[in-house]
């Protein structure tokens, strides 16, 4: 084959490859639990849904990357990130000093407070004295579980692998109250299963910021996520997602 023909074919191949590369999006792998409605849960078709998932998709669209979701049990969600099973955790995770020893965090994408849920009409008082001798349920390895142990030392604190299992034990009468993220409790109390239950007392204001966790070395990813959070707040996308799940602002 003549040299000029080979050169022309090579140039054409490079142009096709370049065009394909331009069209292909970078991938951002997102880890989430899938057992924390309304923030992340598995629908009847086996797909991840919820506020966290919608926010992640909006951030990926803003960053012009493709979101790929990986489900992971809560207990292993940070080890999974460190093992590079995914690049970021979007799973309603609180930004805490303890977790910052292992991972880095973006700016918050919503705020949280803790609140008790208990049977309607209960005479319990949500105080250290009032909960003495009672059983409090909470999800394991969460702010709620730690707060219950720290502030209600006279109570038995039972922890569960998922928030859903904590609600099941409350409904079965195996706990007297559940301490949980207020927004998660709000969702459950609106459901058929939570119809006979109500908030107990006022929220515990713990200034809990919910953020996206990434590996410490991924500083550029943190910057991109922060810029994307600011962008979806500014362009109204965040507010539309918020309104889909809550009749009030959770930011």
Question: What descriptive keywords fit this protein?
Answer:
alpha/beta; 2 domains; 8-stranded mixed β-sheet; 3-stranded antiparallel β-sheet; 9 helices; D-Maltodextrin-Binding Protein, domain 2; 11 strands; 251 residues; disordered N terminus
Number of helices: 9
State the domain count. Answer: 2
Count of beta strands: 11
Q: Could you please say which CATH topology of the largest domain applies here?
A: D-Maltodextrin-Binding Protein, domain 2
Cα distance spanning the termini: 66 Å
Query: How does CATH name the architecture of the largest domain?
Result: 3-Layer(aba) Sandwich
**N to C succession of SSEs:** HEEEEHEHEHEEHEHEHEHH
Query: How big a fraction of the residues is strand?
Result: 25-35%
Query: How helical, in percent, are the residues?
Result: 25-40%
Radius of gyration: 22 Å
**Strand pairing plus helix content: what structural class?**
alpha/beta
- In CATH's first tier, which class of the largest domain applies? Alpha Beta
- Could you list the spans in which at least 5 consecutive residues all have pLDDT below 50? 1-23
**Which geometry do the CA atoms define?**
globular
Task: Write out the CATH superfamily name of the largest domain.
Answer: Periplasmic binding protein-like II
Q: Give the overall average pLDDT.
A: 92
Largest sheet: 8 strands, mixed
Biggest sheet, spatial arrangement of strands? 5-1-6-11-7-10-8-9
Write the layout of secondary structure elements.
Blueprint: H1 3-23, E1 26-32, E2 35-36, E3 40-42, E4 48-49, H2 51-63, E5 65-71, H3 77-82, E6 88-94, H4 97-100, E7 104-119, E8 135-139, H5 143-151, E9 156-160, H6 163-171, E10 177-181, H7 182-189, E11 197-214, H8 219-234, H9 237-245
Parallel strand pairs: 1-5, 1-6, 8-9, 8-10
Antiparallel strand pairs: 2-3, 3-4, 6-11, 7-10, 7-11
């Amino acid at each position: 084959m003549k040299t000029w023909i080979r050169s022309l074919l090579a140039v054409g191949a490079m142009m096709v490859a370049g065009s394909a590369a331009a069209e292909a999006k970078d991938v951002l792998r997102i880890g989430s639990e899938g057992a924390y409605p309304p923030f992340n849960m598995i629908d009847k078709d086996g797909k991840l849904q919820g506020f966290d998932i919608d926010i992640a998709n909006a951030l990926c669209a803003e960053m012009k990357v493709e979101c790929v979701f990986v489900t992971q049990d809560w207990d292993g969600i940070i080890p999974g990130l460190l093992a590079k099973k995914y690049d970021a955790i979007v799973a309603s995770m609180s930004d805490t000093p303890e977790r910052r020893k292992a991972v880095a965090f973006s700016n918050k994408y919503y705020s949280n407070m803790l609140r008790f849920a208990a049977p309607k009409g209960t005479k319990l008082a949500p105080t250290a004295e009032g909960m003495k001798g009672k059983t409090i349920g909470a999800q394991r390895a969460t702010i709620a579980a730690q707060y219950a142990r720290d502030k209600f030392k006279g109570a038995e604190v039972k922890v569960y692998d998922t928030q859903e299992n904590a609600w099941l034990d409350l409904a079965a009468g195996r706990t007297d109250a559940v301490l949980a993220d207020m927004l998660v409790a709000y969702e459950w109390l609106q459901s058929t299963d939570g119809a006979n239950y109500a908030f107990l007392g006022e929220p515990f204001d713990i200034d809990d910021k919910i953020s996206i966790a990434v590996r410490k070395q991924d500083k550029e990813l943190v910057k991109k996520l922060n810029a994307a959070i600011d962008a979806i707040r500014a362009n109204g996308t965040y507010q539309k997602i918020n309104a889909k799940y809550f009749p009030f602002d959770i930011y």
